[in-house]
User: What shape does this take?
Amino acid sequence: MSYFRENIEKMAGYEPGFQPKDPEVVKLNTNENPYPASPEVLRAIKNITAEQLRRYPAPAADAFRDAAAEILGLSAENIICVNGGDELLNMAVRAFCDENHPLAYPVPTYSLYPVLAKMQNCPAIEIPFDNEFNLPAKLVSAEAVLTIVCNPNAPSGTVIPKEELAQLAEELKGKSVLLIDEAYVDFAEETCVELVKKYENVIILRSMSKGYSLAGLRFGFGIANESLIKGLNKVKDSYNADAIAIAAATAAIKDQGYFKKNIEKIKKERKRLTGQLTDLGFEVYPSRANFLFAKYTKQRAMDIYEKLKGKNIYVRYWAYPDIKDKLRITVGTAEQNDKLINALKEIISQAG
Amino acid sequence: MSYFRENIEKMAGYEPGFQPKDPEVVKLNTNENPYPASPEVLRAIKNITAEQLRRYPAPAADAFRDAAAEILGLSAENIICVNGGDELLNMAVRAFCDENHPLAYPVPTYSLYPVLAKMQNCPAIEIPFDNEFNLPAKLVSAEAVLTIVCNPNAPSGTVIPKEELAQLAEELKGKSVLLIDEAYVDFAEETCVELVKKYENVIILRSMSKGYSLAGLRFGFGIANESLIKGLNKVKDSYNADAIAIAAATAAIKDQGYFKKNIEKIKKERKRLTGQLTDLGFEVYPSRANFLFAKYTKQRAMDIYEKLKGKNIYVRYWAYPDIKDKLRITVGTAEQNDKLINALKEIISQAG
Assistant: This one.
C-alpha cells in the first residue's frame, strides 16, 4: 500500500536539467549566467559571522526587500523573498489553486508549471501558443484562478509586449491572478513590474539565478500589491531565506553597475550566436533571454543533442511532440559559444 | 473579493518567535544554540567560489547525504535534505494529507503543525497529552494518515521512550506515517533513527539549527526508507538547498568532535539552570532539549515574561489556555543564564 495521496503517488517529480559534475564540460543546458557574480557578493559571504549563523535569519529578509524596493521604485511591502523563484510558483499554486480552482498557462513553457498543478491536484489548463509565440486570446476565457505567463518565455526566449499583458490583467480582474514569470527579464528590453501599481491581480516573479549569476544561491522575489503579498506570506515558510543568501543577494542587487555590464556582455554574445546559428541553417526565435531556441530541419534535434553531448557540450532537448525539432541553447561565454559553433559545424558537415 | 482559496483566506500565518535586532539582548526565546558553530563551517563558507554560486547546486545535496549517512550508519538513499526542518513538515503534510486524510499529533506541541494543516485544508486531530506528557494512547485510533510526534517535545522538553514510539509505529502500520520530529534530539539521550530500518512508515526529522548552531543557515534532513524518500522527493523543490548551505552543513556534521563538546556544555548548563529555577520556586519539566518549560504559580507567567522583556531578556510565552501558566526558556550561556536568574530573583522579590 502507499501512504501518499493518490495525485502524489501517480505523478512524476520535476526533472531538473542535467548537472554534470565535471567542471570542464561546456554547460549550455540550464541557462546559468556564464560570468561570475559581482565581487561584492563574495565579499558579503566572507564577512558572514558565526553569530549570524547561530541566530534565525530575518523572517522577511528586510535588507534585501529594502534594497530591491529602492531600485524598483516600490515599497518593501510590495516584495516577498523566496528560496529561488520556483518557491514562489509553488506558493502561488498552493495559495490560489485546488481541485475546483484551475491553473492556466500558454504552452510550450516552463515545465515546472504542470508538475506544481499535479502536486496541488488542481486542473492545469494548457493553451497552445501559435508558431510565433503570441499571447493566446483563450487565456482570458480559461476560467482559471491563477494564470501564469513566462515572459520572456522559456524555452522560446520570446516576449509578449507589456501592453498586451496589461490588457490581459485588466480582462482577468476579479477572476484570476496573473503571475508574470520574469525569471529571464534581466536580458529583455522591458519589464511588467509597473503593472503591480495599476492591477490588484498581478504578481511579478524575479530570480537572482540568471541575471545576477547566483543559481547556486537560491534567491528570488515576488512583486505585487500589499494585499497579495500578505496572503502569500501566509503560505511562506517562516525562515525560507537563509542569513547568507540574504546578505549575498542584497550585495548583488545593490551592485547595479556590475550587473548592467554583465547583461550587456550576454546580449552581445546572444546577437553573435544568433547570427552564427542562422548561418549554419538553424531557425532561431528572436530571443530576449539568455538562451536561444533553435530549430534545425536537416537532422533530428535529438541526434544533434546526443552528438554534442559526445563532445562534452550540453544543451537542452525535450522529446515533447511540439518542441522535439528544437534545441534550447544557453548563451555562454564567447569561448564556449565558439566551441559550440565549431562542434555544430562538424556535426552538420559529417551528416551532409 | 479575494483570489485566495478559502482556507488560506481564513487562516493566520505562523507567528515566529520575536527576533530582536539589538545584539545586546539576552535572547532565550527561540531555542538557538548559544555557542558558535564549528570553525570548519566558517572555513567552508569562506572557500565558496563564484563558480559554485553561478551554477545550480546539486539537487539532492549529495555531499551532505553521504556524510550524514556515514555518521548514522544508513545509506544516502535514506536521506532527503531540506531548507530547514519546517520544509520537511510542509512537504509531509502536502504529500500525505488532504480534506479526507487528516493529520494527528499530541498537544501542546510545536505550533507550526496546525498552521500546516490549515494551509493544506486537512483536518488536524489534536490529542491532549496528560500532565506528564506521556504518549496519548488515542493517537492510534485517530485515523490520521500522518501522525507527528515531536520528541523531545516542544515546548515541554520531555521525551517519549523509543520503545513506545516503536510500538506506535507498529500499530499505525498500513494506516499512518509516523513522523518523529527530532529537531531537539541532539540534546537527548536516545534517538529513534533506527526505527526507519524496521518500520516502513517512520520518518525522522532532523535539524542543523539547534545542535549544530546553524539556525541562520536553514538546513535539515529527513530519514526514512527509500520508498518514502522517493515519494517525498516528488514534492521537493528541485534545488531547495543552496550551494553554500550544503557546504556549510556538510562541514558541520563532519565535525562530530566539536558538536559533542558543544552539546555537553549545554547539558551542563541545562542541569544548573533547572536547579536554580527550582530553587526559585518554579516547577520545571524534566528536559532533554535545549530549553526548559517552567511553571510558576505565585505570579502570572505573562507578567514575568513582560518584566523580563523590560530588562531586555526574552523568553517565550503563549497565551493558550493549556500553557499560559508556563514559560519556555532556552538554555543560554552561563552568563546569559545568570542574568536570567538574577532578573527573576528581582521580579519575584518585588512581587512578594
In short: The radius of gyration of chain B is 20 Å.
